[in-house]
Design brief:
- The protein is α+β, with helices and mostly antiparallel strands and 331 residues long.
- The chain has two domains: 190 residues, endopeptidase fold (from Nostoc punctiforme) (Alpha-Beta Complex), CATH 3.90.1720; 133 residues, Lysozyme, CATH 1.10.530.10.
- It is built from twelve helices and six strands.
- Strands 1-6-2-3-4-5 form a six-stranded antiparallel beta sheet.
- Helix 10 crosses helix 11.
- The longest helix has 19 residues.
- The protein is elongated and about 60 Å long.
- The two termini are 23 Å apart.
- About 20% of the residues have low confidence.
- One of its GO terms (cellular component) is membrane.
- Belongs to the transglycosylase Slt family.
- GO terms for molecular function: cysteine-type peptidase activity; peptidoglycan lytic transglycosylase activity.
Length: 331
């Protein structure tokens, strides 16, 4: 069933009202979908949050192309480091694009070829506007952010750094993610909306699937990822107890459960919502699914100490097990 633009915006308002957020309306789509802040730090500079402060991805109607350009310029001079999304260490081309949009509260895919499918297509360079994503080659292997006047900001190659340069060849794709039009923003929703609203569905055949969907919607994370964690943690057994005392579907330690507001870890609903809250917190802190999973298993302190997945046999095995379970669910 198609909701149409008004139906989509109405549904967003309903969810935001339930979560205590400022509603999105056509009148505010260009003036305050998210409240942006100048500057910023290594965290997302400005983003809608749920009741716990966890970030929720937004549609692109609350920021302008000029905001995107300003966000990207903060990283001028950052060294090119292949595979890095951490500006303190360096950025590659798609890392720069993802980070600039993330600072405005807009989550984009990680890879350049995925970013070349975000938002809406722009016909040609003559129609390009500042803030548009320029993608190059086929298959796409490089992206930058258009500045206007045939210039872009990009992280070009190893040994180089984030800089402003001429658009040196015709892009194979030009994509517009931010817009002042509420109708186009709603169309953009498929590429930047929360995972819980973008086709994770009811997890047919998965035990407690409806609870995973509800918890994913509340905390802005994928229900399939939650289900995958539960599969590996407990095999969907709400009465499971580990040898170290972790309990329930999501295998929460008593102290962890208490900190998450879970009174009974054996109750499937409490356990799933508690696990979702913890996983969302990890994703917000580490901005990486593998690291968030490692923190779920070994604790955030261990991830920070080793600056990556800790060298524990259990954790080293745990992360790929959850990723495999996620893939089996179509995630």
């Amino acid at each position: 069933m198609s909701l149409g633009v008004s139906g989509v915006l109405s549904r967003i308002q309903q969810l935001q009202s339930q979560l205590g957020l400022t509603p999105i309306t056509p009148d505010t789509a260009s003036a305050g979908t998210v409240t942006t802040k100048p500057g910023g730090d290594s965290t997302f500079a400005s983003m809608l949050t749920d009741a716990t402060g966890a970030p929720l991805p937004t549609i692109g109607g609350g920021s302008s192309g000029a905001d995107v350009v300003a966000a990207a310029k903060k990283y001028l001079g950052t060294p090119y480091v292949f595979g890095s999304t951490n500006p303190d260490k360096g950025l590659d081309c798609s890392g720069l694009v993802q980070r600039a949009y993330a600072d405005l509260g807009i989550q984009l895919p990680r890879n350049s070829w995925q970013q070349a499918k975000a938002g809406q297509p722009v016909a040609s360079m003559a129609d390009a506007k500042p803030g548009d994503i320029l993608a190059f080659d086929s298959p796409v292997d490089h992206v930058g952010i258009y500045l206007g006047d045939n210039k872009m900001i990009a992280a070009p190659k190893p040994g180089d750094h984030v800089k402003i340069q001429k658009v040196w060849e015709t892009p194979t794709q030009i994509r517009r993610v931010v817009t002042d039009s509420a109708s186009v923003a709603a169309q953009n929703m498929a590429s930047v909306r929360p995972a819980a609203l973008s086709g994770n569905g009811a997890l047919a055949g998965v035990p407690y699937g409806d609870l995973f969907v509800k918890a994913g919607a509340k905390y802005g994370i994928s229900p399939k990822l939650l289900a995958a964690v539960a599969k590996v943690e407990s095999g969907y057994d709400p009465q499971a107890v580990s040898k170290v005392g972790a309990r329930g579907l999501m295998q929460l330690m008593p102290s962890t459960a208490k900190g998450l507001g879970v009174d009974n870890a054996f109750d499937p609903e409490q356990a799933i919502f508690g696990g979702a809250k913890l996983l969302a917190r990890n994703l917000r802190e580490f901005k990486s699914v593998p690291l968030a999973l490692a923190a779920y298993n070994a604790g955030g302190g261990a991830v920070k100490k080793y600056d990556g997945i800790p060298p524990f046999a259990e954790t080293q095995a745990y992360v790929p097990k959850v990723q495999k379970a996620l893939a089996a669910l179509g995630g």
